[in-house]
Amino acid sequence: MRPNSKTLALRDPAAAIMLGALMAPGADFGNDGWYGEPAFGGVEFGEDAPTAENMAKAWKEKQYTKQRERVLSPNAGSSAKIQRYTFGLGQTLTLETAVALSYQGNPQVYIRPQRVTSNAPLPAFCRLSTMQVGNVGIIVGGPVDAFELAAVAQDAHLDVPTIGPQNAVQVTGNYDALLPDGGYVTATAFRFITSFKGPASMTPNV
């Protein structure tokens, strides 16, 4: 008769407790696990009964395999599918033509931004007066220079409320007709963008 979980646990109680064997009444260390799969995460023990040493090795291999699988499937085993995404919105400007900024948009999924960035090419290019999610203002006080939110900015993390399909992000400000150096041409179109980056729910078709 092949040993069962109870007899194996009594051989080495400390190892059995570590591996959870004493918490699994009725477990069987025979050739097969559940649904015909080898016991202990697919590790075969041959004809001999498993020892505490190879049981521990099998458990470690299984945990390491799960870690590696999460590289490709980080949401495996979770009913909440969440990844890091970015949500961008903005307004098209005509270079060297002053204009008020006012734009808004809704993401198609829920996103909790942890950083807001802009593509302002230099300081004083645009001023942002308000940035609001629902009834929560992200800018408290006077206007901020959009270059503060450039991709190279330091300490640009913000606690932005969760944005969802039902609550738009609203941004207002001003472009004061500054023409940047470096190949920018007067009267050409420039798409000024703010981007909200953070954990977001995955779209249903992903």
Structure report:
The chain contains four helices and eight strands. The chain is elongated and about 85 Å long. 19% of the residues lie in helices and 27% in strands. The protein has two domains: 68 residues, no CATH class; 120 residues, Jelly Rolls (Sandwich). The strands form two sheets. Strands 2, 4, 5, 6 and 7 form a five-stranded antiparallel beta sheet that branches. With 206 residues, the chain is an alpha+beta fold.
Give the SSE map.
Layout: H1 5-11, H2 13-19, H3 39-42, H4 52-72, E1 82-94, E2 99-105, E3 115-118, E4 126-133, E5 136-137, E6 144-145, E7 169-175, E8 189-201
Antiparallel strand pairs: 1-8, 2-7, 3-8, 4-5, 4-6, 4-7
Helix pairs in contact: 1-2
Properties at a glance:
2 domains, alpha+beta, five-stranded antiparallel beta sheet, 206 residues, Jelly Rolls, single chain
CATH architecture of the largest domain: Sandwich
> What is the distance, rounded to the nearest whole angstrom, between the alpha carbons of the first and last residues?
49 Å
Query: How many strands?
Result: 8
State which percent range the strand residues make up.
Answer: 25-35%
Oligomer: single chain
Instruction: Return the CATH class of the largest domain.
Output: Mainly Beta
- The helix-strand sequence is HHHHEEEEEEEE
Shape: elongated
Q: How many domains make up the coordinates?
A: 2
Number of helices: 4
Largest sheet: 5 strands, antiparallel
In the predicted model, the low-confidence regions spanning at least 5 consecutive residues are 21-27, 29-37
Helix content: 10-25%
* CATH fold-level topology of the largest domain: Jelly Rolls
Q: Taking Cα atoms only, what radius of gyration do you get, to the nearest Å?
A: 29 Å
Mean pLDDT, nearest integer?
80
The secondary structure category is alpha+beta
